[in-house]
């Protein structure tokens, strides 16, 4: 169960993106934050007002999640990507990617240039970005051109070599005189390489030099010059900040990282599609004594990609795996083309893997307490129940319920809990076919007989490899009631030669569970225990499922009364009978004269009904 207040307390004071979900788990809002804990807390403070639209959104928040980033700028880019992908109801849609500026190094031409661009083309250029400040980008381009002595003209080389005299930049010693062929292409390309290293994040030497010049200018009381250096340092730092969220290569890839803490592990997968990070998912794993990090990662990769419909052509990992080649072959076969497993050693790719690991670590730390609580509610509760019943190894429980309206058209439900959690794929519904009237015992016997007979038939047909929906039998059958319901189930088990334990969930006069009935003994149960809470959830789920099924049939007009099978009884007479006698049992107990005296009834219809209800007479 997601507790908003509990999760608010775990929010980190770090930049990132938060994602709001409604009760259907649909994403309704995505936002960025410089501090996740401060920003998300604001939504749930009564005094905080962000307008009617945000107020309506907060009322629909059922849970939230978040992705930590290394900077507010990365959070902005990720927010943009996620909004475009999911188009949440309460977000104002952002503009296209062209609104974000990039730095372009024109590697496709001789003597490359460093330019400002708002588009990423599939050419031979190298792009850095995207960035949020066009001014900072332009300042950085000016700085790069001056520091590394790069050309800024539009001439094409070698075509325009020595066609005109050198420009002012050459005389100001800001350009090495490319147009006059005063520098070789190899030497110039070394300047470009150094500039790209700077743009790629290796800004230490440059920032150190600018800082020294700023301090010298300040000492000489040249404050305007010092302020200029200060602004250049700020622009440089802003623009060389790593943009891990968008990859200008435009490829599809997954980033997989895992964090381990004792017996618990969390794996995070970042989904990069078309060069943009569009989402994240995380998974928890139990660590066994003999598990190591590599074997856990190999197991995760096999299980995760066995169940996902799309496998990208590249998957980045934290480290090389012993069976990397084998897993790559397995994924390639499933994808239908080559899949590369890469453990990057440096650069942007390494930092992206580190970001995934950072999120995995935070999820593991944040959710460890919740995981333990969840295990107490599920696996721990199952252990308590096993001890109460002296039945070791209970994993699968099945519970049944009967629902009807005044005895008309009963239906049955079967719900399954596996390791303490609902296994909804194994739930089943039954229309009662052989029982007339509100006979819950007979209806329950029909349901149980059909369920286990079907399972036995599937097992006989499929042998040891049978995989039909009814082939998995429970470790214990939990009946909603005491001795009577338990005896019905035991009778079915005996008739079908099955040895499945049957336990009753006994209720008090206020229809609340008070204990368990097992082996002809009522076992008291602590109301504050996890086992008691589990039994209550099981009962409520069986009851809910049966009622919902009955309600759905009524809404479709599919529920019919046994009166529909009696000749001469139409809608008007059926309604009159139900109005006078209230229940099917009362109709069955009525005399022929009482039936005939009912409004709309005649003698012939009454006799037909009486013979239908009392065939032995």
Protein described:
With 617 residues, the chain is of the alpha+beta class. Helices cover 44% and strands 18% of the residues. The protein folds into 5 domains: 89 residues, GIY-YIG endonuclease (3-Layer(aba) Sandwich), CATH 3.40.1440.10; 103 residues, no CATH class; 115 residues, Nucleotidyltransferase, domain 5; 160 residues, Nucleotidyltransferase, domain 5; 52 residues, DNA polymerase, domain 1 (Orthogonal Bundle). Strands 12, 13, 14, 15, 16, 17, 18 and 19 form an 8-stranded mixed sheet that branches. Strands 9-8-7-10-11 form a 5-stranded mixed sheet. Helix 5 runs antiparallel to helix 7 and helix 13 packs parallel to helix 14. About 1% of the residues have low confidence.
CATH T-level topology of the largest domain = Nucleotidyltransferase, domain 5
Catalogue the unreliable spans.
93-98
CATH structural class of the largest domain: Alpha Beta
**Which structural class fits the helix and strand makeup?**
alpha+beta
Terminal-residue CA separation: 57 Å
Number of helices: 19
- Round the Cα radius of gyration to an integer and report it: 36 Å
| Helical content class | 40-55%
- Described by the principal axes of the CA atoms, the overall outline is elongated
Q: What is the typical, i.e. mean, pLDDT?
A: 82
Count structural domains: 5
- Would you identify the CATH architecture of the largest domain? 2-Layer Sandwich
Strand coverage percent:
15-25%
What do we call the CATH homologous superfamily of the largest domain? UvrC, RNAse H endonuclease domain
Main beta sheet: strand number and arrangement? 8 strands, mixed
Q: What's the number of extended β-strand segments?
A: 19
